[in-house]
Automatic annotation (TrEMBL), chains A, B:
Name of the featured protein: Pyridoxal-phosphate dependent enzyme
GO MF annotation terms: ATP binding; D-serine ammonia-lyase activity; L-serine ammonia-lyase activity; magnesium ion binding; pyridoxal phosphate binding; serine racemase activity; threonine racemase activity
The organism of origin for this protein: Fulvivirga marina
CDD domains: Thr-dehyd (cd01562)
Keywords: Lyase, Magnesium, Pyridoxal phosphate
GO biological process: D-serine biosynthetic process
Family statement: Belongs to the serine/threonine dehydratase family.
Source organism, top-level taxon: Bacteria
Length: 316, 316
């Protein structure tokens, strides 16, 4: 138990990051309630700084650095949103940031990282290449590694999104659904529900083509993600060890959605809610629609994880 | 003066429609403030019912019908959003609606009108065809004509968007910018500023390829729009007589933007603000950027008129 962030550490993280992040709105949508038969509450982290919830974890990690660590900077790898989050948080705190990104990351995400003044190092789009490149950067610069999800400071930061969702919805939530990639958001939301909304079940939603969290959860053994095939570029990473430990204790279930279902859900969100969301953000709605009966008549919080899309590469 | 809606009639319209419409949020965006050098306040009517401010005018018109008029239903012509607005308002009040739409209206707009249970009558995409078809429908059915903009009940309804914008922004607005097509929104906003925010200048923004309001305003004589060429499908209509009368008294100026500028502004709004807006809604930001110096350092309200786009036909 001692290894898992406690209630106080999440409250402290929230107080730490609150002045630097947006308290994003919770949206409802009558027409999506009709389609799904559930009462949906969307936590719109696409309106968060850097366009994604990752701003929370990145900010919490940078604010937790010692003054000694600040001097040598920070380094991380990310398919995109965490990269921007660390770059922005570093910039706002006068810290140098080295960002390793897979070469197939969205152009808009690379541009944003450069825009925040970070140093961008591209690598092959495999987990192994990312981690090796990052290791080299850390050895060369002495920068502190800020892992995108396998880090309790990140988990605590991400948990503040679900904490706000719980605080800002007047009704009791029966469920909270989040996407799951590395597991930072899912483990953070699971902790937030555990500490601040007893009885709210947290469910991770994952693309069928990158179902390592599903297989890990069902087999109770961490299975790495090899050669993921999904449009949801934020969810291609392998589940981290630290998030996995929390998920095994506090997450209710993991549900899957095919890319076609995710694309349909994404289009529904754009057309009905008039908001720009990433494909990764659309996996929970897709999974909910696939498992409609389970959620009928229930109050369901959904974390819209981000809104950074390449408008020239839309899937519909 | 007696011909123009007075302060009390706008307050009354607001009280009438308020229970039936969303009080849409006002968004700010640091990165667009940086790009433009102005302090922008976006009134997000893309989040309005039917996805556009037209819900306001449509609802005000239907709620103003006599019980006798309700029996024979209502009829209107529209390139899209007004059609949905009248269809929804009619449905919610148990009134039959006949909607004349140009055959080149966006598929999503036609589908929405049918979804609200209205009768859809398609016509050639010219103003003349629309008005003739509408006349035939009115003669055949006895329905009350609810003109999309040349009607004071509509102007009063639309004015409530700018009224709310004025009420919800804590600072004094130097300018309010709205798109101008038929003139319902622009004349309504001009009246709202006149009655509720003395000194706030209201400016209409129009596509260069459909510049009848610009030419009418400059020549002080109503010039019809013939063969409009613009991507902004909501702004192809001719300025109405009643709006023109109000605009000549209470509007500060009319600015133009080319389609390329409008598309660039639209992409900026999608990418930076993460909201889905129509091309018509992007004309004010495009015109502001074209005339940057005029707005530098000023507080500028911008009415985002709607968010109904065909995702398969995006211009970028």
């Amino acid at each position: 138990m001692s290894n898992i962030p406690d209630r106080e550490s999440i409250i402290a993280a929230h107080e730490r990051v609150a002045p630097f992040i947006h308290r994003t709105p919770v949206y409802t949508c009558e027409s999506l309630n009709k389609i799904t038969g559930a009462n949906l509450f969307f936590k719109c982290e696409n309106f968060q700084k850097v366009g994604a919830f990752k701003a929370r974890g990145g900010m919490n990690a940078i604010l937790s650095l010692s003054s000694e660590e600040r001097k040598s900077g920070v380094a991380t790898h990310s398919s995109g949103n965490h990269a921007q989050a660390v770059a922005l948080a570093a910039k706002e705190n006068g810290v140098k940031a080295y960002i390793v990104m897979p070469s197939n990351s969205a152009t808009v995400k690379k541009a944003a990282v450069l825009g925040y003044g970070a140093e961008l190092i591209e690598c092959e789009p495999t987990l192994q290449a990312r981690e090796e490149t990052l290791q080299t950067v850390v050895e060369k610069t002495g920068a502190t590694l800020v892992h995108p999800y396998d880090d309790h400071r990140i988990v605590e930061g991400q948990s503040t999104a679900a904490k706000e969702l719980i605080e800002d919805v007047n009704e009791k939530l029966d469920f909270i659904l989040t996407p799951v990639g590395g597991g930072g958001m899912l483990s953070g939301a699971s902790l937030a529900a555990h500490y601040f909304s007893t009885g709210t079940k947290v469910i991770g939603c994952e693309p069928s083509g990158a179902d390592d969290a599903y297989r890990s959860f069902k087999s109770k053994k961490l299975v790495p993600q090899i050669n993921p095939q999904t449009i949801a570029d934020g969810l291609r990473t392998s589940l981290g060890k630290k998030p996995f430990e929390i998920i095994m204790r506090h997450t209710e279930d993991i549900l899957l959605a095919d890319d076609a279902e995710t694309i349909a859900a994404m289009q529904m969100i754009w057309e009905r809610m008039k908001i720009v969301v990433e494909s990764s953000s659309s996996v929970p709605l897709a999974a909910l629609i696939r498992n409609k009966d389970q959620f009928a008549g229930k109050n369901v919080g959904i974390v819209i994880s981000g809104g950074n899309v390449d408008l020239k590469e839309l899937p519909f």
